[in-house]
Each structure stands twice: as C-alpha cells, then as structure tokens.
C-alpha cells in the first residue's frame, strides 16, 4: 500500500512538471578537462616524435597559451608526461593558441647537448579532448 502511494505521488509530481511546461532544472555547465600528453625526446633535432630519440626523464613541460602558463607536468623516467587543464575555451582555440615548451635545459638529459635553448611543440587533437605534441623541435636562444 505504501509503495502504491509513493508511486502515485511521483506520478502526480511528474505530471505537474509536464503540465506546467517548465523545463526540469539543469546542472550548471561544467568546465571541460583538456588532457595534454606525450613524449619528450632528449635531442636537439626538429619535429621529433616518440621513439625518435631517448626520453627526457624529469623534463618540466609547460602548456603555454596567450595569457601565460596554463599547466605544467614533469616527464616520468621514460620521458612521458600528462597534464589536465580546466578550460571553457573551444578545442580549436587550445590547438591554435597554445603550445608546449620544455623548460628544463637539454644538457640535463645529455651533457653533450646545448645548455641553452628550449624544446617547443604545437598541439594536435588526438581524440575527443586529448592533445598530443605535433613534434618537438629545438629552438636555439636568440643572440639579442
């Protein structure tokens, strides 16, 4: 009997919402997580991808956008990193306005490599909201 009354109360409440034409309350919009993950090579080549050189363990990788550093991560012992960013920006904006910069000097992973300069990479959308480096390239310091 009690379950019959509860069912009747729920049915009346649902009918009242539909009859009033009111939309059921919506949860607030949640900022989407953007995941950036990839491999940092220990090399001063150009357009380097995973497997093109040994990994750069302990490299500090920064996601830099128009308004500064949006996130950072440290590469693991094999050179792989992963970071998540909360943003309301469109994915196309993240891909075009942001890039990856390795802030750790290359000489940290191999003393024969330059102590100055950085590794930089653009972003490409891999799947859904996951970005991957387009390929890191060494950028020598300017002579200004």
Q: Would you kindly provide a written description of the structure presented here, covering whatever features stand out?
A:
Strand 2 and strand 3 (68-74) form a beta hairpin. 18% of the residues lie in helices and 34% in strands. The strands form two sheets. It has a five-stranded antiparallel beta sheet with strand order 3-2-5-6-9. The chain has a four-stranded mixed beta sheet with strand order 4-1-8-7, with helices on one face. The model is unreliable at 6-10 (pLDDT under 50). The chain is built from two helices and nine strands, in the order αββββαβββββ.
Q: Can you give me a brief rundown of this structure?
A:
By secondary structure, the chain is of the alpha+beta class.
By DSSP (H or I, 4+ residues per run), the number of helices equals: 2
Which segments are poorly predicted (pLDDT under 50) over 5 or more consecutive residues?
Answer: 6-10
What fraction of residues sit in β-strands? Answer: 25-35%
Radius of gyration: 24 Å
SSE order, as H and E?
HEEEEHEEEEE
Helix content: 10-25%
Task: Give the terminus-to-terminus CA distance.
Answer: 85 Å
User: Which structural class matches the secondary elements?
Assistant: alpha+beta
Q: How does the major sheet shape up?
A: 5 strands, antiparallel
The rough form would be described as globular
**What oligomeric state is this?**
single chain
Mean pLDDT: 80
- Strands of the biggest beta sheet: in what spatial order? 3-2-5-6-9
